[in-house]
Amino acid sequence: MKKTITGLLTVAAAVAFLLPVLAAGTGSAAAAGDVREAYSGPAVVNSTDTDTPDDPSSGTDTGGWNTSGGETYYYKNGKKLTGWQVIDGGWYYFDKKSGAMLHDKWLYDGAWYFLDPDGRMKEGFDQIALGRSDDGWYYFNPDHDGSYGRMMTGWQYINGTWYYFNKAGKWPQGKMVANAWLYDAKVWYFMGPDGKMYEGLTRIDLGRSDDGLYYFSEAHDGTYGHVMTGWRTINGSRYYFDPNHNGFYGRAYAGGTYKIGSRSYTFDAQGRCLNP
Residue-wise over 99-134: b if at least 16 C-beta within 10 A, else e? Predict the structure, then answer.
């Protein structure tokens, strides 16, 4: 099976819903092992603040933004604001003790968030580049549904395309899976270099022994994106995809003659059967 091939990404936990279904943010405290252990020092800030964020724009500001000693603060009524704050429509986080604005950092506050170089909380599909092992593409909930800004995991449907982001227990949690096989809920998928789930007849070329032609279901019947096996008619041609769990599961027979059942069939280099 492909899970024996070096470097393949395997997700052991089953999805708790039928695919494809939009995954929701967990919003719960991270379990042991979820912490971004690759970070050290101030790169990760753990917050236990559960206060309802204030909105400075709703009050009378007597100070606003202020920079001192290389740190940025926000004043209201002469006092530094702390914790989550909404300022000019954006969410920011200020250290509970010093009041300094967090920026260019991951923040764990019941869920993972990311504060950009300007301190604003990220939303939507975005790339994190801190020069660390978990740099990559992430998806932060853009919906104001009670989990706004939270880092999302699992299957996510974005702009008409399915993507997969590592779940808890898989490092780096939340990072988009790209250019790799994905084994989830006992099904094989392939996520392209841009993270998009493959569908249809596709050639996989990773420089590995199982490279070749595969067919990923295009049917929206609960099998969408699944690697398919057996005989398939595609664009008028017949193909046969290996159903055996021998390290080449799902790969098309090509460039030779193979015995299937009681008959022998010949396939060209593109996998098309010449004597169907």
Answer: bbbbeebbbbbbbbbbbeeebbbbbebeebeeeeeb
